[in-house]
Amino acid sequence: QVHLQESGPGLVKPSQTLSLTCAVSGDSVSTADYFWSWIRQRPGKGLEWIGYISYSETTYYSPSLKSRLTISVDTSKNEFSLKLSSVTAADTAVYYCARRMGPGRGWFDPWGQGALVTVSS
Amino acid sequence: DIQMTQSPSSLSASVGDRVSITCRASQNINNHLHWYQQKPGKAPKLLIFDAFVLGEEVPSRFSGSGSGTVFTLTITSLQPEDFATYYCQQSQNTPPETFGQGTKVEI
What we know:
Helix content of chain A is 0%, strand content 51%. By secondary structure, chain A is mainly β. In chain A, strands 2, 4, 5, 6, 9, 10 and 11 form a 7-stranded mixed beta sheet that branches. Chain A has a 4-stranded antiparallel beta sheet with strand order 1-3-8-7, with no helix packed on it.
């Protein structure tokens, strides 16, 4: 069974960089056709796609976050990471990692439990 | 980008009721439409993929229908554990991935 687990600081100061890691078990981040994804949910709001990285390490980012975003993968640790720079209070959210199935199978499954990140001084 | 619009934004229902939620896409997405259930404080869970295929261990009281631009999630005989927020997501034309704004099913 595939399991994803987010980890990282729960509090980040404004203007600093938010960093999260998603550990994957039961599957390999090198598996062909999957996209390893980040999705966030601001308090009381809906789901917002952030971006993903393919098995070949090609990245795809939300246009609204692209200038501040880096998603990377560490195959030796079987995990992938998110870095969002110059954060503001608007970046306060629960951040989920998820596996997005490949071309022609565009759903997200499974999801990690989520990590709440608060941006505050 | 393809915009996804769900209706209603929220609804009140009782145990045993039949409930339907609509998701409209701003352009043709064929059957590339997926539904998720999210309970408070929990991660979303895949319910239905490709418009009508039930996810793993999803009860048969859930069903999906539609194609093109209009899709429906139906719950027959609503159960207490079904009170949650439901989201649709399209994968016809990505990235970016786009979700509906959610429909909260309340008692």
